[in-house]
Specification:
By secondary structure, this protein is mostly helical. It has three domains: 216 residues, Up-down Bundle (Growth Hormone, Chain: A), CATH 1.20.1250; 50 residues; 219 residues, Up-down Bundle (Growth Hormone, Chain: A). 74% of the residues lie in helices and 1% in strands. The protein contains 16 helices and two strands. A two-stranded antiparallel ribbon has the order 1-2. The N terminus and C terminus are likely disordered. GO terms for molecular function: transmembrane transporter activity.
Length: 498
């Protein structure tokens, strides 16, 4: 629902006077804001709209998982390639291409006649986002000289926080007012946003500077994509009368492909992932805790709306209220937490925030059978939002403070990719967990299937399936706190200046 790390200047983000005229910079800033709104609104609203998408398309739980994972798969595996393409062929050109592809895929999502068609369109959306996401900050950084860049990034961050906070509320209101099929309108809104951004780029931007010697690691991108595909496919499992069985051969083949991707990075002069960064224990710890915490976050963002809307029959507009505190707390408290991490180091803020998230998810696991939306879900999600607000900016401090100054952009990109991969694995594996527990506790249909919401055994089994997901999320968030406490430093690392 939010960007995974606080805004940071991309690697190689230097002022490029050939990109646009000085008077045109503000228009490129608006283009970057509009493009960011595409990704932020899409990510936050899909969580609320997924139960309606599943219901109107008669999708199984596995298909619903892939409606989320198809997007995460292509985005997480190609996001580092997207940044390299911008450097090689021009930021404005690749950024604009990503927007156009994202918008076209959004139209495909809005018109999708079947679950499989929607899954395919979502995968194309992820490719567009992989080109678009790295380009937003890169465009601002190249358009503005150093003395004006901080203010421009601040405007971008504030606008992004606003759209992220409003996304669930607007999406929930649309679905509540116009019915389940209105989820198609949510994808269609990307057309004017993307069209406006593309027009501004066409009118005010040139191609800008290019790095002619920049090489694109297509082998690594292919191995990473294929590996993550088979891992997610295997972990999603196959539906069976006793639950969902993980396809271990597929998952194992995916791990082998992903291991081949890691091995390939050792022998390239310009790899997607410079493995030498992981020799720093702080950098490794920061990415490990990121994986644990964002696994937990994504699992909850995916399964909680499905349960609340599909089984508890809470209207979408009210369900959206549970997710608003996450965006509000992060946008309002992140600057303060960033300053605090700069003063005392990231260890204590991240450990404290992760522990708060673990407590919140533990409350949700305990309270699920009570179906107490106002007295349990809303307070717990507010607590989780407060915890994430303690983590986001200090996590950037930990990641970028652990590497030399000229590699901060690469480090931030790797951490962003790690969090997306965590989400991919979370949706796949947690779905198998929820479905297995659901079947094991007497469920006769499919986890959180809205059409059978009135059946008492179905409701009880769905609550039990969610309890398993929430309990595992709480344990992983707690593991994130432990890794932060023992793996990070009390004072910000000085390695970046060495």
């Amino acid at each position: 629902m939010t960007d995974q790390t606080a805004p940071s200047q991309p690697e190689g983000a230097v002022f490029d006077s050939t990109l646009c005229a000085a008077r045109s910079r503000k228009y490129l800033l608006v283009a970057a804001i509009l493009a960011s709104a595409l990704g932020f609104i899409d990510g936050s609203v899909v969580a609320i709209a997924l139960p309606a998408m599943r219901e109107t398309l008669s999708a199984s739980l596995s298909q619903a998982q892939w409606m989320a994972n198809a997007y995460l798969l292509t985005l997480s595996s190609l996001i580092l390639v997207g940044g390299a393409l911008g450097d090689r062929f021009g930021i404005a050109r690749i950024f604009g291409g990503g927007i156009a592809l994202f918008v076209l895929a959004s139209i495909g999502c809005a018109l999708a006649p079947s679950p499989d068609a929607l899954i395919g369109a979502r995968s194309v959306q992820g490719i567009g986002a992989a080109l678009m996401v790295p380009g937003s900050l890169a465009l601002i950084s190249a358009a503005y000289p150093a003395e004006d860049r901080g203010r421009a990034i601040g405007v971008w961050a504030a606008a992004s926080a606003l759209t992220t906070a409003l996304g669930p509320a607007i999406g929930g209101a649309v679905l509540s007012l116009f019915g389940d099929t209105a989820w198609r309108l949510i994808f269609a809104v990307n057309l004017p946003l993307g069209g406006g951004a593309l027009w501004l780029l066409w009118r005010y931007a040139s191609d800008g500077r290019r790095e002619q010697g920049k090489r694109i690691d297509w082998l690594g991108a292919g191995l990473a994509t294929a590996g993550l595909l088979f891992i997610a496919w295997g972990l999603s499992g196959s539906e069976h009368e006793t639950g969902t069985r993980i396809r271990w051969p597929l998952a194992g083949f995916g791990l082998l492909l992903f291991a081949s991707f890691i091995a390939s990075q050792r022998y390239l002069s310009q790899p997607m992932v410079p493995l030498g960064l992981f020799r720093n224990p702080v950098f490794s710890a920061a990415n490990l805790l990121s994986f644990f915490l964002y696994y937990a976050l994504t699992a909850m963002l995916f399964f909680l709306p499905m349960l609340i809307i599909g089984i508890w029959q809470v209207p979408e507009v009210l369900t959206a209220l549970a997710f608003v505190p996450l965006s509000i707390f992060i946008s309002t408290l992140s600057p303060r937490m960033g300053r605090l991490a700069g003063q005392i180091g990231p260890r204590r803020p991240i450990a404290t925030g992760s522990a708060l998230v673990a407590l919140a998810y533990g409350v949700l696991a305990f309270a699920a059978p009570l179906q107490a939306f106002w007295s349990a879900v809303i307070p717990a999600m507010a607590l989780a939002g407060l915890g994430m607000a303690c983590v986001v900016a200090p996590l950037s401090t930990a990641v970028m403070g652990a590497v030399p100054g000229d590699q901060t952009g690469t480090a931030s990109g790797i951490n962003n990719a790690v969090t997306r991969v965590a989400g991919l694995v979370a949706v796949a594996l947690s779905g198998a967990v929820a479905a297995t527990v659901y079947k094991g506790t007497g469920g006769a249909f499919s986890f959180a299937e809205a059409s059978e919401a009135g059946d008492p055994a179905h409701v009880a089994a769905s609550n039990a399936g969610f309890q398993a997901v929430a309990g595992s999320a709480a344990l992983l968030a707690l593991a994130s706190a432990v890794v932060a406490w023992f793996g990070l430093e009390d004072q910000a690392s000085s390695s970046a200046s060495q």
